[in-house]
Amino acid sequence: MTEKTVVIIGAGPAGLTAALELLRRARIRVIVLEASGAFGGISRTVNHRGNRIDIGGHRFFSKSDWVMNWWQDILPIQQDGGAPFEIAYQNKRTLVTPPNAGMGAAADGDGVMLVRNRLSRIYYEKKFFSYPVKADLQTALKLGPARIGRIVGSYAQASLFPRTPERTLEDFLINRFGRELYLTFFKDYTEKVWGVPCAEISAAWGAQRIKGLNVTRALLNALRAPLRRLGVAGGPTNTSLIERFLYPKYGPGQMWETVAEKVRALGGEIRLHQQVVATDMQDLTMRSVTTQDTQTGKRGWIEADQVISTMPVADLIAGMSGVVPSNVRRVAAGLQYRDFITVGVLLKKLRPTPGSDPQSRINMVPDNWIYVQDGNVQVGRLQFFNNWSPWMVADPGTAWIGMEYFCREGDGLWALPDSAMSALAMGELSKLGLADAGDMLDTIVLRVPKAYPGYFGSYADFDQIQGFVDAIPNLFLVGRNGMHRYNNQDHSMLTARCAAEAVIAGARDKAPLWAINVDDDYHEEKAA
Hints:
The protein is an alpha/beta fold. The protein has 19 helices and 21 strands.
C-alpha cells in the first residue's frame, strides 16, 4: 500500500483508537493533533497531589467483544491466580480469561485493569434509592403509599393513552414511566444536566440512552422474587445494571496514556497543544489542516490525504474553507453543548449515612456514583474515587470525592473563581447531610468545555450536516463530539475502528459509522 498521511484530530478514545488501528494494519503515516497537553479527552485522569480524578466516571464494559479484548490487550486484568471469571455487561454474560490463565500467573504491577464491584444510587429527599429505581418493598416504603398510588395510576394512564407523536424527551419519558415517576426521578436531574426543560430536548436522546428499561418487566420481576426464592418461579430474571466492571488501576487516563505510547512506538506522531483552527477543502475534498500552538500561538499547516475528526463538529464546520452550503453553516452554528465542572473534595471523613461501612473510620459509602435528585442544590452527581480504585487516593484514610456540576461555558457557575466554586461544593455536601465543612482537607476545580453534545438547539436539522460531510470522501467524523452524539467510550472506539477500516480499504460509505450505537440496548442494563 502506498504510504499516505492520515491526520487525526483529537487524542481521546476515538482518535487514539483510530491511530493505533491504522498503524497496526497498514503502512500509513499517522499524525494525531491534540489541543490540550493530555491524552484521553473526557476520559483522562487528572493527578492532584497524588489524588486522581476520573472526569465523568468511566466503567470499562462493553457489549462488543472486540472492545473488551482490545482493552485487555492494552492493560491485562489483575486477577489472583489468573483464573477465568465471569463479568456481566449489556444484556450479556462473558467469560473473561486473564493472560496466562491456568499457568499460575496473573497480570500484576501497575499496568493492569482491576475488577470492581458496581453500585449507583439516587439521593432523593434525603433517602437513598437504587439506580435505576427497583420495584420492591424498600422503594415503596420510602416513597409512601400516596406517591406509589400516583406512580401506578400515571403509569397505567401513559400505557393506555401514550403521547403521540413522541417528539420530546418529556414525551419519551412519560410514555415509558408515567408522569409521576418522571417527575419523581427523571425531570429535575435531567434538566440540571442539560439546562433546558425536557420538553425542549429531542426524544432521540432518550431513544439512545434509555433503551431496555421497562417498568412492567421490573414489576413482574418484583412480584416473582418471593416465588423464585421458594423455587417456584424459574426462568431468567432481569436485573437492572452491571454488577462488576473493569477499571484501570490508576483511572481511565492510564488506558489512553498507554495507547499513546503504543502509537508512538509504531511510528505515529502525536503533537500536543496543537489546536486545529481551520481546514482547507477543495472540490469537496479535504486537502490540509491549519493548527495553532495553544502555548505559543504559532500556526502550522499539514497536508492530509485523509482526515479523521473528533473535534466538535460545530467548530469543524466553522473553520472549513471551500464551498460549504449556508444551511450547513447555519445548523452547525446552532448546535449546543453542555459544559461540565468537577470539584475534587478531599475529606477527613464523611458523615455516617445508610449503607456506609460501619468498620470504616471515614464512613465510606459503597457507591461509585450517587445521582443527586434535589432541586435545592446545584450538584448533579457525586463520585467516590476510593471505590473506583484504591490507587486513586493518596491516603486511603481520607475520602476523595468528585462533585459534578453541569453548566454552560461563560455562565455564572462557569465564571465562579475556584475558591468560590470550592466553597459552594463543600456547602452543598453539608446541606445534603453527607459531610461537615470542618473535615475538608483540600479541593481542586476542573472545567471541561463541550463535555456533552446537546439534543436541542439546531440538532433537529443535524441530518443536513451529516449529508454534507458524508459526501466528502476523505473526511470521517468519529467519537462523541465529532458526531455530535452522546456516545459511550466503547461506541466512540467502534466508530474509530470503522473509520480506520474504511481508510485502509479506500471505502467512502459512511453509513456503517452512523449505525453504531443506534440499535444497542441501554448501556448499563443486563440480563442475568
